[in-house]
Amino acid sequence: MTTDPTKTTSANRPRRDVLGLAAWTMGAAGAGLAAWPFIASLGPGAEARALATIDVDLTPVAEGQAITVVWRGKPVFIRHRTEAEISAARAVALEDLPSPEPDDTRVRRAQWLVVLGVCPHLGCVLQGQRDGEPRGDYGGWFCSCHGSHFDESGRVRAGPSPSNLPVPPHDFRDDGTLVIG
Amino acid sequence: MENADRTRGLLGWIDRRWPIISFLRGELVDYPQPRNLNYWWSFGFLSGTALLVLIVSGVFLAMHYTPHADFAFASVQRIVRDVPYGWLIRPLHAHAASLFFAVVYIHTFRGLYYGSYKAPREVLWSLGVALLALMIPTAFMGYVLPWGQMSYWAATVVTSMVTAVPVVGEDVVAYIRGGYEVGNPTLARFYALHFFLPFVIAAVAAAHVWALHAQRSNNPLGIEVQDSRDVIPFHPFFTIQDMLALAGFLLVLAGFVFFAPDLLTPAENFQPADPLSTPHLIVPEWYLLPFYAMLKAIPFKILGIVAMLGAILVLFAMPWLDRSPVRSARFRPIYRVLFWILVADCVLLAYAGTQPAEGVPLLLARIGTAYYFAHFLVLVPAIAVFERPRALPQSISAAIMERRASRRRRSHA
């Protein structure tokens, strides 16, 4: 008996289905692989990734001073805290905090506080880094946009901010060099 | 609409309101194709695919490119060095443009060989020549965007051609450049047009396919389809034939992109544009070389430019220059020889285009240019009168049966 191979019959249907499925699977895999570099090209470029980690020289920053550095396009506040500020931050009872977080989990070395200087509420840059700027009612920073107050550990104490100031990943290479990112 | 009730469920519901499924089935699945189409008929599909690759890769390049004379060069360097996979996307765009011309030229020569320009496909052919005419300025303006030395001086040389126009030429060229020399305004407008024209090309390509589907494909025998024995449905046979052609095309494209990414970038274009220093030899991309040779061949500026434009324009007239009633060169012994001489002539012109305009190359460019126009304006009309075509087969299916029978006789002997 001869059959016409161009016609789909009950005998060759499973074979046809396998071939069809294999062809579509290969096509979909190829399309997915071809799309990958185009989607990846939308991500941060090498020049942005190169700045994802920065070194900060801390030697000129005396106790009680604060500096602002730019990391991934955002201001990072680095404060060289005094003994009084450290003990004030550690004396607060956790139940008094809207977003309870002990100070020692927010710093790597007690005298250096490193936080993002952007209000978690709606992204304004906070006041309190420079002399003469309001530090708010809790000795840290104040958001002039919507009135959030932050303490010596960068924790929200009053106002609409939903969380404490984020601590960027950081570490000390040596006593005088901070690595952020 | 006869297909409408074949689709059930949600797609059927949509199809009864907007018959897109029936349309696609009619044009891509059930569409009757002459059963004897060979792989040369896949190059139209490949041209469309190349255009799609160019538009997609071009949109992604546009997201990273800066169309300003001070930043363009650096932004292209950033694309290939810093943008993730930019090293892949930029050469992909450049080589897809090069292969777009390659497949379109093959597609055009296929039309010339098999007489696809003849009645009733004159409008289909003209739309195709219009596509070629649109591709050339689009590719040229894209070449200017990296703002290297070759980009800059190509822009200067090409825009200077307009000065050949009597009386108003000098003034017009300032409007084309947006200044007295090629500069930032030129770059900005070339960028805008390079982004815009591909969508015009896509629209004309749609009209080209529409005209094709109105008249249906020619075939290697060049004879009309007579009945259902001469045709088979487009799917699955020709979809698979086209997919295999596509696989070969992508293999060649990937070969260039991965193994010779900078092949299309002359050394001069790795230097930023310098308006005070011209490279020693300005050479266009390979696909424009024959036209460039014609420009250099003719010592009178205005005539050289007329020849370049005429080389494209003469193709529009092909359906009326060739009065032979036989389409396919298979049955035209003289035309077939002339066709291959024309192909060789274009290769000769391309070679002459790479050489300085002096000595033997200049002579070759002049001979090549003269022959090119003689082919279309003298030889093709003349042989239509003298040539004795071979006998045409009764029908496509009869020709196939005849070939099978002769093959069987040979295997028995």
Broad shape of chain B = globular
Spans where pLDDT lies below 50 across 5 or more residues of chain A: none
So what's the CATH class of the largest domain in chain A? Mainly Beta
Please indicate the count of domains of chain B: 1
What is the helical fraction of chain B, as a range of percent? 55-70%
Sheet of most strands of chain B: 2 strands, antiparallel
Approximate helicity band of chain A: 10-25%
CATH homology superfamily of chain B: Cytochrome Bc1 Complex, Chain C
Number of self-contained structural domains of chain A: 2
What is the N-to-C succession of helices and strands of chain B? HHEHHHHHHHEHHHHHHH
- How many whole angstroms does the radius of gyration of chain B measure? 24 Å
Instruction: State the end-to-end distance of chain A.
Output: 74 Å
Oligomer category: heterodimer
The most extensive contact between chains is: A-B, 10 and 14 residues
Q: How many beta strands in the DSSP annotation of chain A?
A: 9
CATH class of chain B, named Mainly Alpha
Distinctive features:
heterodimer; A: 181 residues; alpha+beta; Rieske Iron-sulfur Protein; 2 domains; three-stranded antiparallel beta sheet; 3 helices; B: 413 residues; mainly alpha; Cytochrome Bc1 Complex, Chain C; two-stranded antiparallel sheet; 66% helix; globular
Describe this structure in words.
- The complex is a heterodimer of chains A (181) and B (413).
- Chain A is an alpha+beta fold.
- Helix content of chain A is 23%, strand content 23%.
- Chain A folds into two domains: 1-43; 48-180, Rieske Iron-sulfur Protein.
- Chain A has helices spanning 13-40, 46-50, 83-91, and strands at 54-57, 66-71, 74-80, 112-116, 139-142, 149-151, 156-158, 170-174, 177-180.
- In chain A, the strands form three sheets. Chain A has a three-stranded antiparallel β-sheet with strand order 1-9-8, with no helix packed on it. A three-stranded antiparallel β-sheet of chain A has the order 2-3-4, with no helix packed on it. Chain A has a three-stranded antiparallel β-sheet with strand order 5-6-7, with no helix packed on it.
- Chain A is elongated, with a radius of gyration of 28 Å.
- Chain B is mainly alpha-helical.
- Chain B has a two-stranded antiparallel ribbon with strand order 1-2.
- The radius of gyration of chain B is 24 Å and the shape is globular.
- The model of chain B has no long low-confidence stretch (mean pLDDT 94).
- Classes of the chains: A alpha+beta (181), B mainly alpha (413).
- At the A-B interface, helix 1 of A face helix 3 and helix 5 of B.
